[in-house]
Amino acid sequence: MHIKYESFVREPLVDGNKDYHQVSEDIISPIERKPGRMWYIGFFFSIILLCFGIFSVSWSVYWGLGTWGVNRTIGWGWDITNFVWWIGIGHAGTLISAILLLFRQGWRTGVNRAAEAMTIFAVMCAGQFPIWHMGRVWDGFWVLPLPNTRGPLWPNFDSPLLWDVFAISTYFTVSLLFWYSGLMPDFALIRDRAKTKLRKRLYGLASFGWTGTAKGWQRMEALALVLAGLSTPLVLSVHTIVSFDFATSVIPGWHTTIFPPYFVAGAVFSGFAMVNTLLVITRKILKLEAYITIGHLEAMNKIIVLTGSIVGVAYLTELFMSWYSQAWGEMEAFKWRIVGPYWWSYWAMMTCNVVSPQLFWIKKLRRNIPFTFVMSIVVNIGMWFERFVIIATSTYRDWIPGSWSYYSPEWPEVGFYLGTFGLFFTLYFLFAKYFPVVAVHEIKFVLKTSGDNYKRGMQPIEEKSAEEFIHEQEHHHAEEHAEMAHH
Amino acid sequence: MSQKQYWSDLQDLNNIATKNEGAENEFKEELPFDLSDSVLGATTPRRDFLKFLGFSTLAATIVSSCEMPVRKAIPYAIKPEDITPGVPNYYASTFADGGEYCAIVIKTREGRPIKIEGNETSSITKGGTSARVQASVLGLYDKARLTHPMADGKEATFEAIDRAVKAGLAGKAGYLVTQSLMSPSTKEVISQFIAKYPTVKHVVYDAISYSGMLQANEACYGKRTLPTFHFEKANTIVSLDADFLGTWLSPVEFSKGYAQGRKISAKNPKLSKHYQVEAMHTITGAAADERATCRPSEMGMIAVALYNAVANGTQPSLSSPALNKLVTAAAADLKKGNGMVVCGTNDVNVQTVINAINDKIGANGTTVNWVTTSNYKQGIDKDFADMVAAMEAGQVGVVMLHGVNPAYDYLDGKKFTAALAKVATTVSFAERLDETAQKCKYIIPDHNYLENWGDAEPKANYYSLQQPGISPLFKTRAFQDSLIAWMDAGQTYADYWKLYWTTRLSGQANFDQALQDGVIEPAGEMANGGAVYAGNVAGAVAAIQAKKPGTGTEVVVYQKVGIGHGGAWSNNPWLLEMPDPITRATWDNYLCVSPKRAKALDAELTGFTEVDYNKRVAKIAGANGYTITLPIVVVPGMHNDVVAIATGFGRDKNVGRAAASDATKGGKNAYPFTSFNGTNVEYYSGATVTKTDDKYEVAITQTHNSYENRPVVHEFTLEEFKKDPQALQKERAEEIGHYSGLPWEKHEHEGEALANPEMEENYRKNGTLYPNHPYEGVKWGMSIDLTTCTGCGACVVGCMAENNVSVVGKYHVLRGHEMHWIRIDRYYSGMPDDPDTIQTVFQPMLCQHCDAAPCENVCPVSATNHSSEGLNQMAYNRCIGTKYCANNCPYKVRHFNWMDWNGADCFEDNIFEDGRRDDINDDLTRMVLNPDVTVRSRGVMEKCSFCVQRLQEGKLAAKKAGHPLKDGVVKTACQQACPTDAITFGNVNDKESAIHKLRKEEQVERTFYVLENIHTLPNINYLSRIRNTAEVVAGNEKLDGMYTEHI
Questions:
Q1: How far is A174 from chain B (nearest CA, A)?
Q2: Of A358, A408, A437, B616, which sees the most CB atoms within 10 A?
């Protein structure tokens, strides 16, 4: 048993009367049952969206990027907006699993598995955009530093786009490993419970022969720590490097040194919102309210209000700096962002990202599930606009007024974006069906310290006065000593 | 095989059998991998599996790699003597389209013309060209050209048509209608033809008529001709509605001359003074120093006011104070001598008054030359009107039409068509099935001018020879050959022409020389002289005053700089896609309307509506009942009571796919808005304009009109420039001086510092953390003079022709996908509601070839990089199309191949090809492509290369000749096309080069670099715009409403 004593004032992390078996039952049994109606409907629509996305992308690859609305002035539109948006969403998982692990935040146990899965799927979605936005995608592998017979030609290590390639692939690899190593004991659990041969064999393979020995657990803990240590800088570096795409350029509105922290805060902000969106639905459909509690959601909401405020400060700092620099390019760029033909995107961003999360200062709202759900969507709309504002409304009115332009997406761009939702939810539905959406072994790890019933068991002790407790403990010890002596 | 066995050693001898076995089995050793059936079951399955995996992936990659099939490359079986593959041939020739003259040189490669250049030997056009001249080579490969003669709409033989026409000609009254002809030999053929058929009359018909001027000159000077205007000699130029830099008479010639008076430097701070009065906004108005607007019907009154002010010192009392001020100032300047007045109004009375002014100010014999007269236009409006009347009356048996299309461009095309139906024998020499040719019984398509022999006499005693660059592509026949055939003269025009010139030039040697030069000109300066004025000014003034100016809305019918009067140009995709210099619109005509008027029509121009291409449609109802709907394009600088519509649009589908007018593009015909006043065709009329609820997309390439007082353009008045020529350099020092020294050094901006070469050098070094890259040897640089640039667009089309720049069609221009490597940004300043305050400036914008190029470092695959000569170069094959470079280009001059424009892609059947682009990928049209320049495939970035193929060719030639590259030997296509020599290009490191001298000596004061503040270190500099006026309004908080309202 976990020997940490947890104060009674802390909210339980697992609600209801749970024991180890019940935890396994609650979390694993949906995998063993046939999925419900809702799952089939959801999965069907996800596949439809995915197919539409594939069609849209095929269309743009076959006919060319002229099927998109981007133009000579605004070279990146929905494509890179969506890329940064998805990458941002993909930050929550690692933040939860790595940084919160290092900070020993017990409440992460209920949400980390789903959050990590979401990270991986979001990064997969994000990766589609830089690939398919290339004019000659079939030559895209030229960005890889592979020995070759084309010269040999090497990629340009000065290009932030190249740094992106490394940053994202590293992040994806580490996140995947982290996620998977945590899944092994749970796969083994499913294997051990399995009643069909096929399930036994597949989960057996997936669990890499996990036997649950003490050595195994010890190594897994060590691996988790190492990977957490590796991914912590990655959480910060990935979005920092993504922000370099813009920060190292010469376009006012892009050329900003505040971008790395601002992007990271924004990423956590949107990632947590996305986790909330998914958890609110998942806990309901899979009936996991006991494991993903309101307390979990509240903790997430607290981080949302914190990062939302950081982002808000960043927006204001940008405005201040553009004025303080007294550089005409900067000042004009921000003016046109706010009052130009794209004014609505700026104000949508400000409303969704800065104003509305402030409502989470109110505890009642933080713990209100429908409100949390709505806010999680509002935040992600806001964060989408943030990326659109940075990308499109910086280039649309840049240095030379003669080249100013405007941009609206065409259907293949929209289709591509919807397609990534299709991809994301297809994967998520498969995950929800075949993978334990809550980390069983981690829940069990905290169950006896933070489980509702166990905490209730502590109640009589809690109610004792300090003196009484000390006395009892000493007495207890004395008895023990006597017993030992007796032996 | 012989039975003999050879052996190399004894072992060999013993084992000859074994050896054979060995020879058969070349690979004696076991193959290093297992060939058993089951890969996984093999002895070393994992390693082999990986090998197979690697091999199959590689094989699949190689097999599926795109490879373009070679298309129809046919080698010469017998190589023609003069043609070496890869080496261009040049032929001097002549461009003459209905009186529009340009001496040209045709560049041919492998026997096909691919580029037109100006002929520098000509003292008239002096090597300049216009957008139309540049684009004319594409007309040769126009798919809409007729490929064979036709009778009654069916293919026929020349012989059959000849028989029928000869029969038709016999004894019947007939008309031969041509456009203005400058060709002496053609005129000779026509006179012989008329001698043979005396019942035939020759009528000259011009779509855009200068009849009023011709008739006035006849009345005033006894010569029905046009003078030569020496813009280069004029200190004061007053133009009443004459767009002499864009469309009036001979814009290339005039631009060359005009630019001489606009070349200004601190050492020689002199500018001609140019007054412009116009109803709409032309590029000539944009170049003017003082500009005021009026109604077109008021132009006569203004001419009279100017005459009175010049002759009697009378104060003008015109409809606006701006006009009064302008006329007073112009009159005062004209009286100082070396003045000139030109007028674009086609009204004999107004032109009589203009002649009187020129006579009064002593222009005749100095700036207006009556000795060396011009032959550009000969059409008399009345002649044609009389002919139509005769046709209507059924008095005409034969009509032959050459180079004219009255069914489309006559003021009453329907009336003409109806009259034509009453003529028994109608013959058209049209090169395409245009609106008139469709109504003719016989069509004998004429050669394209690049396939034909010919000549021109643009000015008295100035000749220009026309030689073909290619044999006729189709079954066509020279117009002259048809006449000769019907005369039964039994020779060809080519023979006739050669004989004509060898006789005139007395000998083959002279003829050969003339053919090589392209022009035959008298030695020395052009003969100049005046003429005795004998016009009836009082009568003309009375006639003008009797005609009251209009009160309602007036619609002006004007020519676009690109398309002009219409004709074949309507179907030229290069011209259709060339943005109009003023409106920056492509592929359509539209209703030009002032901002104030637009508000009333619910089409207000604001910083928000400017980005909406979907324009409000207005209904225009002419006085004659002709009603059309057109989208509204707001043009600041238009008179508030005037709307304008361009000619050349609203064409029939048989004119060509690009020209065809339909619901999505192609505009409407503007000619029916012209009217006939009994003597002359007037290119305006009263009309009512009402708004509709419809919208229509207009493909405009520039949304924003003000340069927002940014240091992108620098403008000064002449006075400011004279007083402080260094103002610009102080401003630059303010901007870059601070960064020219290291932080611990003394900053150079302290005190009254000037930007100078040393500061530039220090800024280059110290404005960055990166090491400075030295440029030894050649370093290319360009300078663009904003004062002489007229925005005419010749460079844009010249660049398209030289560099195979793709046409993208209206649909893609609408989405900002146009490909022009050089664009001409046009900025307005002034109060939008007051057209007389508008000042306009043009800025050609192309790749600046930055030495610290922001595009270069962001490319993940190094597809764009810097050459040791300072060129920012694109390796198309290396590009994967991330578009990052285009985003990071502060000048936005990089163009992405959004679609497969040219079939250079490896996907099948995905070429973007709809009717809008006129079969640009047809085998025929593709013949225009320059083989020295890669045709870019879809998905790669492209941009200006400084015509690197020309630079390489020049360097190679210099290397072969064993001397360093001489300045002026290589020219970029834009530089060569420019009729005002606004572009200077060369090796900056060459101390003798024009560009070096310009930057370091002659134009130090006017030189600036665009966006110098971001340390891009461009290799293109600009020279400030100097206006010979009282005030530059741009950026002035009180005077520049375009800036304060951000339109």
A1: 24
A2: A437
